[in-house]
Design brief:
The complex is a heterodimer of chains A (about 260) and B (about 375). By secondary structure, chain A is an alpha/beta fold. Chain A folds into two domains: about 170 residues, P-loop containing nucleotide triphosphate hydrolases (Rossmann fold, 3-Layer(aba) Sandwich), CATH 3.40.50; about 70 residues, no CATH class. Helices cover about 40% and strands about 25% of the residues of chain A. In chain A, the strands form two sheets. In chain A, strands 6-7-8-3-9-10 form a six-stranded mixed β-sheet, sandwiched between helices. Chain A has a four-stranded antiparallel β-sheet with strand order 2-1-4-5, covered by helices on one side. In chain A, helix 6 packs parallel to helix 7. The two termini of chain A are about 25 Å apart. By secondary structure, chain B is an alpha/beta fold. Chain B folds into two domains: about 90 residues, Transcription Regulator spoIIAA; about 250 residues, no CATH class. A four-stranded mixed β-sheet of chain B has the order 1-2-3-4. The interface between A and B is medium-sized, with 30 and 28 residues.
């Protein structure tokens, strides 16, 4: 895991008007790890995700993905990078006019020579991999619960077996049982498919259960990265409050009990 | 991207199974070729898949192998690296297991069932519209008895939106219709030397039918869609449910001001269309036939009965209520997805225009019978 980073961000700067969200932000993402990004409201967690995923152009800085400069490359290169990455948006962002199976088939359409029958069967596999029942494939996004929509969004994100997936608040709005199941799913997929996962979350349980490494966004940059245990020793007011609060202790207790 | 190739070893020695060596990448990009290779080697005899040289495999490749192994009972998979073996196991555990599909009716039965559903659906929609009409009148009556519950600001706002903002398009439409009628009329009437009757032609057709009908069609396109979109997006974001829990009656707050605004402004818009229609007609009659505007005016006042105007304007409130009720009803049918908002908006416009024309046809028959 200590090889070259597959995503390398240096000196990133994002600003909206005069409001600077990121300033001189550095972050590395290594192959096969699950990184959780935390930070207070308005620290630009989602902005960071959108910037890496190529949905937003930063004002300054460099982003290297798979060893290529993602900000100054040709459209073809960018497309190839995009095909190797998957994004799950907060509420799934499924196409509401398509069934779940058709949603998952959308990225598969870019593969040449794949017959519709094969495409449908592969979509079924991804739906099943993301823990949805068989019948969900024929349903429209509006007929699914919030948790199922997130799973369907994940199924679409992993449709082309990307090397990196980005998850925006994967457990927000889920009940504790559903959230725990989603944490387990993320961990399983990361282990069995060898995925690199970049997730933005507020959920301390997710950080405990799913993440190898935590990156804390504060003061417009990545303040510190490290394991959950090392976060407890960081001397910064926000980090201390976050990881020493009652919720954090409950989450740590829960994982040590089950461990 | 690594490529895919294979080698087939036919029974190296007696008794040992055949070996199929796969090399390179088993991925979604090579899946079609992998599938065809595997399909060639399905059979009943024992077969070993040698995967020692597989460098890369994704879930699609693993899926093909698992499916092959399931179909080909005597196949053995060997030589995968431990990491890829884990992937294979994960995919095997997640193989989709289809539930038996529910049997759908087909043929004549399907046809009859669908027709029945549509007829019943149309009946229910008509009933729901009538209910909305009733709700509108009930709330209007309540607003008269309890004026404090009535939203005057909202009414004024909608009058501006529905009426004032539609004035330019309605006036332009009326003007052009007047020009068309005068031009076409003059071409035909000149053959009989009856050019002067073009005034009656324009006046009667605009006053009785075209002025108010075309205004209603324009308003249906503009306003029914706006009502549906506004109410529908509130419904989608659960704002209407929130109103109910706060003790606010959505019918009073949303429907009454909108439909009432239409009731007030549609006759005014109709009048504007009529007047600009006369202006266009007079201009064209002057240019084509030399009928001066003064003469046009005199003939208009002397020869055209006020009955035509009464017939025309009597339709306006009916059209207004039809457009308003259809727009509000469609808005309330919007579900929680964006697609239904678009669908209901366009169906509201179509339904409103159709209903306006159908009502106009009924008015024509009615006035012909009563002799007006």
């Amino acid at each position: 895991m200590t090889e070259e980073p597959i995503i390398r961000i240096r000196g990133l700067r994002n600003q909206f008007g005069t409001q600077v969200v990121h300033e001189n932000l550095d972050l590395d993402l290594f192959r096969g790890e699950v990184v959780g990004v935390v930070g207070g409201s308005g620290t630009g967690k989602s902005v960071l995700l959108r910037t890496i995923a190529g949905l937003r152009r930063p004002q300054a800085g460099s982003i290297e993905i798979f060893g290529r400069d993602a900000l100054n490359c040709s459209d073809d290169d960018r497309r190839e990078i995009d095909l190797r990455m998957g994004v799950m948006f907060q509420d799934g962002a499924l196409f509401s006019a398509l069934t779940v199976r058709e949603n998952v088939e959308v990225p598969l359409r870019s593969v040449k020579g794949l017959t519709p029958a094969l495409r449908g069967e592969l979509a079924d596999l991804k739906i099943s991999l993301s823990g949805l029942p068989w019948l969900a494939g024929d349903k429209y996004p509006s007929e699914l619960s919030g948790g199922m929509r997130k799973r369907a969004g994940l199924a679409r994100a992993i449709a082309l077996d990307p090397e990196v997936i980005f998850l925006d608040e994967p457990t927000a709005g889920l009940d504790p049982i559903g959230a725990t199941a989603f944490d387990v799913l993320i961990r399983q997929l990361a282990d069995s498919l060898g995925l690199t996962v970049f997730l933005v979350t507020h959920d301390l349980d997710t950080l405990h259960a799913a993440c190898d490494r935590i990156a804390v966004l504060a003061e417009k940059k990545v303040l510190v990265t490290g394991s959950m245990a090392s976060m407890l020793h960081v001397d910064h007011p926000w980090v201390r409050e976050y990881f020493h609060g009652p919720r954090s202790r409950a989450a740590i207790d829960a994982t040590t009990r089950t461990a | 991207m690594a490529d895919f190739s294979y080698d087939f070893v036919e029974a190296p020695e007696d008794g040992t199974p055949r070996v199929l060596q796969l090399r390179g990448a088993l991925s979604v990009h090579t899946l079609t070729r992998l599938e065809s290779v595997l399909a060639e080697h399905t059979g009943n005899t024992a077969l070993t898949l040698d995967l020692a040289d597989v460098a890369k495999m994704d879930t699609a490749g693993a899926w093909a192998l698992v499916r092959f192994a399931a179909r080909h009972g005597q196949a053995r998979i060997e030589g995968l690296s431990p990491r890829l073996q884990d992937l294979l196991a994960a995919v095997e555990a997640a193989m989709p297991r289809p539930d038996p599909p529910a049997r759908a009716p087909y043929g004549i039965r399907e046809f009859l069932e669908n027709t029945g559903r549509r007829v019943a659906g149309a009946g229910l929609t008509a009933m729901a519209m009538t209910a909305y009409l009733g709700v509108f009148f009930a709330r209007l009556g309540r607003a008269v008895r309890h004026p404090s519950e009535f939203r005057l600001t909202s009414l004024v706002h909608h009058c501006q939106d529905v009426g004032w903002r539609a004035v330019p398009i309605v006036a332009l439409m009326g003007f052009l219709i007047g020009i068309v009628l005068a031009f076409q009329g003059s071409v035909q009437l000149r053959q009989f030397g009856a050019e002067v009757f073009v005034v009656e032609l324009i006046a009667i057709s605009i006053l009785r039918e075209l002025g108010i009908l075309l205004t209603a069609i324009i308003v249906a396109g503009r306003t029914a869609s706006a009502f549906t979109a506004a109410i529908g997006s509130m419904k989608m974001r659960e704002e209407i449910d929130a109103m109910r829990t706060l003790g606010i009656d959505p019918a009073m707050v949303l429907f009454v001001p909108r439909i009432l605004a239409l009731l007030i402004t549609l006759p005014i818009l109709g009048l504007i269309a009529n007047v600009s229609g006369f202006a266009g007609g007079a201009l064209m009659a002057w240019a084509e036939l030399g009928i001066s505007p003064g003469m046009f005016y005199v003939r208009l006042v002397d020869q055209v009965s006020i009955d035509h105007a009464i017939v025309g304007f009597s339709k306006a409130p009916v059209f207004a209520i039809i457009i308003g009720v259809i727009g509000c009803h469609a808005g309330m049918q919007v579900e929680s997805n964006t697609e239904s908002l678009g669908r209901m908006t366009s169906s509201a416009v179509v339904a409103a225009i159709f209903a306006v024309i159908a009502a106009d046809a009924m008015f024509s028959v009615f006035y012909a019978r009563v002799g007006m």
